[in-house]
Specification:
single chain, alpha+beta, 6-stranded antiparallel beta sheet, elongated, 5 helices
Length: about 200
């Protein structure tokens, strides 16, 4: 049987943030089975690029594993989670639809930056206001440049934190809950030598 602990130790060599591993313990999300593989659930905002890199790392590790992107669904039955694969063909991240009001697309962020620069240049501005706005200009400029350089505006926006700070807001997540069922995008790992399991999971 594939070891969840060994998979966890292997991924930890490559991925330094917190993550979870689950056994796939059902084929249909209704009946429990013996473990069919291990699912790796990384951070909610981990990029597809990172997920794919870890897939490649696991499959090329000479440990006898095969890894691929997958979506699972999890629900509780008698107090225990039952985990089943729900999508192997076209797993995708989940886009947030209900956005907060204080987010800015690139055009909005540039307008905000112009307002801050104008406030700094005003002769009536106090030293405290100038210092505060200079910090905000620096922070907002850095975030805009980050998203510009990574072509990240399709999957990120900038969120204003009160009146004093900004941060990048992720539009795509690797977790979603619908009607009490938890859906996760992550990595499915199976043993290369388990032919039946490999075929069932679409690796052949």
């Amino acid at each position: 049987m594939i070891s969840r602990e060994k998979i966890h130790d292997l991924v930890r060599l490559f991925y330094r943030h917190e993550f979870k591993t689950f056994y796939i313990n059902s084929t249909d999300g209704v009946e429990f089975t013996n473990p069919l593989g291990v699912f790796i659930s990384l951070g909610m905002t981990t990029s597809l690029e990172t997920l794919t890199s870890i897939c490649d790392f696991i499959s090329s590790s000479n440990k006898g594993y095969l890894a691929r992107l997958a979506e699972i669904r999890s629900s509780r039955i008698n107090g225990q989670y039952i985990n089943a694969i729900s999508n192997l063909e076209n797993p995708h991240q989940y886009r947030i639809e209900d956005l907060p009001e204080d987010i800015m697309q690139r055009e909005d962020a540039m307008k905000e930056l112009d307002i801050l620069k104008e406030q700094v240049s005003m002769k009536s501005s106090s030293l405290g206001d100038i210092t505060e706005n200079a910090y905000k200009i620096h922070k907002l400029t850095a975030l805009i440049n980050t998203l510009d350089s990574s072509n990240g505006w399709d999957s990120h926006v900038i969120q204003k934190e009160g009146d004093k700070d900004y941060h990048i807001f992720h539009l795509l997540l690797n977790y979603e809950e619908r009607e009490g069922v938890k859906y996760r995008l992550g990595i499915l790992v199976v043993n290369m030598n388990d032919e039946n399991n490999r075929e069932n999971k679409g690796f052949s």
